[in-house]
Amino acid sequence: QVQLVESGGGLVQAGGSLRLSCAASGRTFANYAMGWFRQAPGKMREFVAAISWNGGRTDYEGSVKGRFIISRDNTKNTVSLQMNSLKPEDTAVYYCAADRVTKSAPRISTDAYGYWGQGTQVTVSS
Fold first, then answer.
1. I need a surface site. Which of 73, 77, 81, 112 has the fewest CB within 10 A?
2. CA quadruple 83, 85, 87, 89: dihedral positive or negative?
3. What integer pLDDT is reported at residue 1 of this predicted model?
4. What's the pLDDT at 29?
């Protein structure tokens, strides 16, 4: 069993920054790639960013590239998403997810992830 708990969401003005964190427990965190996804009202859940099991590779959705940074600390079992230059279209519930298999590269499909957090709301006002 894996537990993922997100924190750090909130309300911010356009152009501002937020840092999301995800704390993992229940299995060897360091062996698994991690991802961040988001879901806006009425829309499908979409990929935002992912990081490989050892932090050596990252991948980003096009609209967040250059603004968001994903990182992980395997000594603390945490993964973070630093979000800068936020836009109203970034408004969504953000979810942390853990890959189904060990030692994979960062993956963008929701099907690749077997464990999900409860989500944290990010609202960007214009």
1. 73
2. negative
3. 75
4. 87
Query: Contact 85/67 with Cβ under 8 angstroms?
Result: yes
Determine how β-strand 92-102 pairs with β-strand 32-39.
antiparallel
The H-assigned helical ranges of the chain are none
User: Contact at 8 Å (CB) between 91 and 26?
Assistant: no
Number of other CB atoms surrounding residue 59 within 10 Å: 18
d(CA 105, CA 97): 14
Q: Where are the beta strands (DSSP E) in the chain?
A: 3-7, 10-13, 18-25, 32-39, 46-51, 58-60, 68-73, 78-83, 92-102, 113-116, 120-125
Per-residue model confidence as pLDDT tens digits over 67-113: 999 999 999 999 999 999 999 999 999 999 999 999 999 999 999 99
How close are the terminal C-alpha atoms of the chain, in Å? 40
Give dist(CA 111, CA 89) in Å, integer.
24
